[in-house]
Design a protein that fits this description.
The complex is a heterodimer of chains A (252) and B (156). Chain A has one domain. Chain A contains nine helices and no strands. Chain A has 252 residues and is mostly helical. Chain B has a five-stranded mixed barrel with strand order 1-3-4-6-5. Chain B has 156 residues and is α+β, with helices and mostly antiparallel strands. Classes of the chains: A mainly alpha (252), B alpha+beta (156). Chain B: It is found in: Cell inner membrane; Cell membrane. Chain B: This is Cytochrome c-type biogenesis protein CcmE. Chain B: It holds the Pfam family CcmE.
């Protein structure tokens, strides 16, 4: 074992420890996601002023942009987990990668649908084959490919490893989606929120957007932990720790 | 790290590296070939002659919009830094279409004019309340700063 990894992280990768840890954290993540989501939506849909050129139509940004960020963020998490799963064959990493795929696919789908609605109102078209829209659609297909490949194997661990390979190669698409608006002439506008340099959005509109970003992150944690726990139970169904939990459930 | 893991790490890193290099080359090549749109000056330089249908992108010149009285026909001029191109379109324009707005028109050349079958409005990545925009426009007055899309929708 590598010496630079702290002991608690090693312990966390053991299924029973992670099962308990995720179970304790999940209610907090759900609560934070709901509270922050309510605050963010109220701030975005009610408190934030209308935009100077798009009026009230721009408010779909408070759904569209956080979901788009999550579609990329979850893919990055899935890619890293897939890498760990392929090299170190850690069962938890396989499960995390595979449990992330449906959540990421859902966020990507919401991004495409809300973007389409917004585009119809502002640009005058539901869809156009510009670089940003096309690469985001490719991202959805990558997610669906990972899900499909995972489920096409009888042996779930072998399915997970094969799908992890696709997930890992597909990670190349993440920077392409992000930088597509800079690299090519697109109908889609450039990035509003920038880590380097000033953002081009009034502060009264930015805070609900950042709150929604936090809410979607917590939702992802809650959803991922729930899925991971369920998958851990079914994959480890013959083990003692699962039997103990099952017996406790029956008795309680 | 044991030898098996080291071997797997090397294999996976080299495959990933090869895939990154391959896609970087594809992206680099597409940057030169893949044109979503042509600007008026590019069209006038003859860059778009090999396409029958293409997209023309640029800014709607102020004062150039002329609407027909008895049909949906609209003519306007699309400009970029160095060129201008008259455009003809029949149909319903998007809400954001107005003077000094970036638009992308799909269509073909008919002589010197561009006949569009679809006109899309492009908007920028700036979001701010109308009051702030008005205040900024006021501060900019007299400094002769050309603000793109400074008119409000209702003034069209």
């Amino acid at each position: 074992m590598a010496k630079w990894i702290p002991l608690w992280l090693h312990k966390l990768s053991s299924p029973p420890v992670f099962y308990g840890f995720a179970g304790k954290l999940r209610p907090w993540a759900i609560a934070l996601a709901l509270i922050l989501g309510a605050i963010g939506l109220y701030g975005g849909l009610v408190l934030a002023p209308p935009d100077y050129q798009q009026g009230d139509d721009y408010r779909i940004i408070f759904i569209h942009v956080p979901c788009a960020w999550m579609s990329l963020f979850i893919y990055a998490v899935m890619g890293v987990a897939a890498f760990i799963a392929l090299v170190w064959r850690i069962k938890l990493a396989e499960i995390v990668a595979m449990a992330s795929a449906p959540i990421g696919a859902a966020f990507t789908f919401i991004t495409l649908v809300t973007g389409s609605l917004w585009g119809e109102r502002m640009w005058g078209t539901w869809w156009t084959w510009d670089a940003r829209l096309t690469s985001e659609l490719v991202l959805l297909f990558l997610y669906l490919g990972v899900i499909g490949l995972y489920h096409s194997f009888e042996d779930r661990r072998q399915g997970a490893r094969t799908a992890a390979f696709l997930a890992l190669i597909g990670i190349i698409n993440v920077p392409i989606v992000h930088f597509s608006v800079n690299w090519w002439n697109t109908l889609h506008q450039g990035s509003t929120i920038r880590l380097l340099g000033p953002s081009t959005m009034a502060s009264s509109m930015i805070w609900p957007l950042l709150t929604m970003m936090a809410a979607t992150k917590f939702y992802y944690i809650a959803s991922l932990f729930g899925r991971t726990r369920a998958d851990l139970l079914s994959l480890e169904s013959g083990k003692d720790w699962v039997r103990e939990i099952a017996e406790k459930e029956v008795r309680g | 790290m044991n030898p098996t893991r080291k071997r797997r790490l090397t294999i996976i890193l080299s495959i990933l590296g090869a895939a990154v290099v391959a896609s970087a080359l594809v992206v680099y090549a597409l940057q030169q070939n893949m044109n979503y749109l042509f600007t008026p000056s590019q069209v006038q330089d003859g860059d778009a002659t090999r396409y029958k249908n293409f997209r023309l992108g640029g800014m709607v010149k102020a004062g150039s919009i002329q609407r027909s009285n008895d049909s949906l026909k609209v003519t306007f001029t699309v400009v970029d830094a160095a060129g201008a191109m008259p455009v003809e379109y029949t149909g319903i324009l998007p809400d954001l279409f107005r003077e000094n707005q970036s638009v992308i028109a799909t269509g073909h050349m008919d002589g010197a004019r561009f006949v569009a079958t679809e006109v899309l409005a492009k908007h920028d990545e700036t979001y701010m309340p109308k009051e702030l925009k008005d205040a900024m426009a006021k501060a900019h007055q007299g400094k002769h700063i050309d603000e793109s899309a400074s008119q409000d929708k209702s003034q069209l």
